C-alpha cells in the first residue's frame, strides 16, 4: 500500500465513517479496484488530506460542488459526513445559498430537499 493510499484510507474513514468505507471495500471487484485505488490516493490521500483547509472547509466546498453539478447521491453521502467534519447545518445552508446564486436555483432547491431529509434522519438517530 502506498503512502498516499494509506493516508487516503485513514482520511476517508475519518470523513465517511468505517461502516461506509467497509461497505465500499466489500463491494469492490477486480473491475473497479484500480479506480477505487485512484480515488483513495488522489481524492482522499492528496486533496482531503491536505493541510491548508480544514475538513469542515473541504466538506462545505464538496457539498457546494456536488449540488452544483447535480451529483445528489454523493451529496447525500457528504451531508452525512458533516457529522465527522464539523460542518454545521448553518454551514450547509450557506454553501447551498452560494449554489443557488452561482449554479442555479433548481440545483440548490433539490439539494436543500435532500439536506433537510438527511439532517432530520441524523437528528432522529
From TrEMBL:
Enzyme class: lyase
EC number, UniProt record: 4.1.1.44
InterPro entries, per database record: 4CMD/NDH-1_regulator (IPR052512), AhpD-like (IPR029032), CMD-like (IPR003779), Decarb_PcaC (IPR012788)
Keywords: Lyase
SUPFAM superfamilies, sorted: AhpD-like
Gene name linked to the record: pcaC
Superkingdom, taxonomy of origin: Bacteria
Protein name: 4-carboxymuconolactone decarboxylase
Keyword Lyase attributed: yes
Domain spans labelled Carboxymuconolactone decarboxylase-like: 35-116
GO molecular function: 4-carboxymuconolactone decarboxylase activity
Metal-binding is among the record's keywords: no
Amino acid at each position: 500500500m502506498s503512502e498516499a493510499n494509506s493516508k487516503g484510507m485513514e482520511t476517508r474513514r475519518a470523513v465517511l465513517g468505517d461502516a461506509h468505507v467497509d461497505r465500499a471495500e466489500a463491494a469492490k471487484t477486480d473491475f473497479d479496484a484500480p479506480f477505487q485505488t485512484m480515488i483513495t490516493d488522489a481524492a482522499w490521500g492528496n486533496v482531503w488530506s491536505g493541510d491548508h483547509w480544514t475538513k469542515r472547509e473541504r466538506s462545505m466546498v464538496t457539498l457546494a460542488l456536488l449540488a452544483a453539478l447535480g451529483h445528489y447521491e454523493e451529496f447525500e453521502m457528504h451531508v452525512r459526513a458533516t457529522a465527522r467534519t464539523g460542518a454545521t447545518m448553518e454551514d450547509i445552508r450557506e454553501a447551498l445559498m452560494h449554489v443557488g446564486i452561482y449554479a442555479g436555483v433548481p440545483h440548490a432547491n433539490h439539494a436543500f430537499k435532500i439536506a433537510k431529509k438527511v439532517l432530520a434522519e441524523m437528528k432522529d438517530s
